[in-house]
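User: Structure please.
Assistant: Input sequence and predicted structure:
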Amino acid sequence: MRELKVIVPTSWEDITLEAYMKFSAIDTDAKEEFIQVKALAYFCGINELDAMDMKVKDREAIIAQILEVLNREPEFTQAFSLFGKDYGFHPNLDEITFGEFIDLEKYQYNMESLDKIMAILYRPIVRSMGDRYEIEPYNADGDSEVIKKMSAGTAIAALLFFLSHRNTFVDAYPEIFEPRSDGGIGGDNFLKKWGWFAAIHRLCDGDPTRADSITSLPLHRALFWLAYESDRDEYERRRIKQAHG
């Protein structure tokens, strides 16, 4: 058997988001050997046939080293370089736009869409001064293929950081995020059937030519108006019920 040179990742920096996404997509019910072979292919760049030909003890020893890295808590990184270009995390999540937030919600924060999520949260830095920087305007067609080459650890930590901040939006606007039995904004019919399109339609007052301007609104402003609409709906519903009660 020919000698096989294996480069084993020693930190999260050695594992790309693309490799981690592929590994995460493996069926957890698959056979152990299949999972190990895929892990060696994704994380070490080994040909799958070569991985299958390895001695079991050698393969398991490498897998143990990989798992040791994956079990480490990844650290949040504000900015990083990729192919000679600097990328920065959204500098102020409180100023995120309605459109950015809608797209983040659309991807449901799952591993299959982590590259697209990161393309929203991390964008090329256009100018910087000290620790402050400005990133490119949001483009829904951003190149998530390039962002797949970022560190998987950076992506995971960034997702956890954003989800923690997302809770502040949820807590501030229960009218939007808490289920309602009447099917209004925040109700089952609203989000389950139409998703955030219904919210855009509401703020556009049915005028599709205003959609771009609505999605460009600061998130807090959009959610505030939607919360008002929700409370107004509830008030009108109760008023009508009392009048016909």
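The beta strands are 79-82, 85-89, 122-129, 132-135.
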